[in-house]
Amino acid sequence: MTRTTRAVTLALTLLLLPLAVKAADEGIHVRGQWVLTFYDSDGGIERVVEFENALTQTGAETLAAILSRGAATGEWTIILAHNAGTQNVCGTVGVPAACTIGEPTYAGSLTSTDLAITNLMDGSFELSGSVVAANAGTIDKVDTRLLTCAPTFSPDLCEGADISGGGGFTATFIAPEAVSEGQGIGVKVTISFN
After folding, report:
1. Hey, where are the domains in the chain?
2. pLDDT digit string (tens) for 43-65?
3. Are β-strands 72-81 and 99-102 bridged in parallel, bridged antiparallel, or unpaired?
4. Nearest to 167 by CA among 34, 74, 53, 13
5. Fewer CB in a 10 Å sphere around the end CB: N or C, the chain?
């Protein structure tokens, strides 16, 4: 390779590198924009915590199963937990449990059943609900889950199994958030596709 050829190759590489980087970053992204609102004992806002999470591998598998008609959708749930599982925020005394917020039609056991789903008509939708902590503790892991079942079920009959597994549809670890006994927590998750 001559010096001129190397120089031309280097120049072309430097010119095309930004396009290659941009192409690698392009594609469909699924994100969850979270807003946790912690209320004080008088019902006023104590603090608001905002953060993002992303689609998990098991969430991608769930989405692929739904889009390929390999699974029918069931209910959504939101999980607020302590990663080590030792904090008793929403459990009974001596039995640590995550705070679980689900749709009113959910057939399983939940902490709260006031989860609402809103189509925002812009390529995103919102999951929102609330929970009251039964005990003081810490929350440092959050996820959304979508229940699914065999494609032969209609969505209104799908009680299903959670094929998104323990990692959920979207999930992340957050800085530990202290929760007081009886404290209300409002949750809003906007899941977007871009």
Report:
1. 29-193
2. 999 999 999 988 888 889 888 88
3. antiparallel
4. 53
5. N
